[in-house]
Amino acid sequence: GCNDSLNSRFDSRFDFLTKIQMEQDVESTVTVRQPKLPKQTWDDVPKPLQDRERTKQKIQRYVRKDGKCNVHHGNVRETYRYLTDIFTTLVDLKWRFNLFIFVLVYTVTWLFFGFMWWLIAYIRGDLEHIGDNQWTPCVNNLNGFVTAFLFSIETETTIGYGHRVITDKCPEGIVLLLVQSVLGSIVNAFMVGCMFVKISQPKKRAETLVFSTNAVISIRDGRLCLMFRVGDLRNSHIVEASIRAKLIKSKQTKEGEFIPLNQTDMNVGYDTGDDRLFLVSPLIICHEINQHSPFWEISKEHLAHEELEIVVILEGMVEATGMTCQARSSYVASEIKWGYRFTPVLTLEDGFYEVDYNSFHDIYETNTPSCSARELAEVTARSRLPLTWSVSSRLSTQGLPDSQEKRSAAAEELAEQNGDVANIESESKV
């Protein structure tokens, strides 16, 4: 009974997906969108159909090539937290919204205090005694809302043309003048400070920090390494520049917990100090693939089927302003080229070094084994076995009886291993 229910459920889901596929194959102006099925449902779908659907999906980046994070925050209910940090909220806004708020705050402030000056004049009766020389108004030459609005602008911006001036017979006007002066200073400090920080942000400085289009994997100093190139287009330097790299990949723990975007640090020299850069000319950042590397067991064939992303982060202080600048980029599996190296861009001219940025992204193919770093290390370890290593010593270490049959079997296995090493070494030389 359980098998019959599972088979019926599988047949219904398979018929549903087949029907959708047939509708998509028919030419029509209506686009049929497939529903997002949970992971458990995908396990029941035949593997050829799964592979066909996954190939249609576009590679989703966590960080785009321009450094912007491809993450949208939804269902944020505690929006009051943005208002508690209103200064940072205004700085993070786009320029059009920032300028709109800048103009709106000043305009509303001038209109509000202009209305207050007009209200004082209306309550005191100054508007009914316009032109009466025997009457002392609160503000001279204030005869309507327009003049009150102009007097509010003059008071808050401290222009003071002298035509409209407050008198000493208006205590409520003196209090309002003090309030507007203090509040106007606060508004000026807040808005001008916000605009200054907005203008001096080092985001545009990061536009002149470039990363290579592709990352490469090849042999360097006898070890398999993953490399990418960074450069600075400006003559002004990035002070205290440092670089980091993280691997973004889905992970399932031993307890069965699924982590969709697990972040793993990649060593690019933080234990030796190579991650601290003197970025005057383009540099090639190297990640050695060893036992602690997440690429330890990944070969060239496996890399083509991996769903991973490498996020690189370059940060430092701008020499001109002293503000911290950060540039980001990423590499997906299709942008990691196995068996390539970067073309040199630095040449020695008459008394100086010249960098050719036309070749900054260029790579060339080199002889690199297609096996994983773990397999390469095992082959290298075999090739370094001493020649005096005898069969009898091997049998004694394993605790086997020293018989002629065991000796011949061990000798045949050793000869077979040496043959494999020789074949692999000959292939790597070719």
Q: Can you offer a commentary on this structure?
A:
It is found in: Membrane. It is a multi-pass membrane protein. One of its GO terms (molecular function) is G-protein activated inward rectifier potassium channel activity. The chain is an alpha+beta fold. Among the domains are: 118 residues, Orthogonal Bundle (Helix Hairpins), CATH 1.10.287.70; 173 residues, Sandwich (Immunoglobulin-like), CATH 2.60.40. The chain has twelve helices and 14 strands. Strands 1, 2, 3, 7 and 10 form a five-stranded mixed beta sheet that branches. Strand 2 and strand 3 form a beta hairpin. The protein is elongated.
Shape: elongated
Task: Please state the second-level CATH architecture of the domain at 205-377.
Answer: Sandwich
Strand content of the residues, in percent?
15-25%
Mind telling me the C-alpha Rg?
36 Å
Count of helices? 12
- State the order of secondary-structure elements, H for helix, E for strand: HHHHHHHHEEEEEEEHEEEEEEEHHH
CATH class of the domain at 205-377: Mainly Beta
Tell me the name of the CATH homologous superfamily of the domain at 205-377. G protein-activated inward rectifier potassium channel 1
Estimated helix fraction:
40-55%
- Biggest sheet overview: 5 strands, mixed
Keywords:
Immunoglobulin-like, 430 residues, five-stranded antiparallel sheet, Helix Hairpins
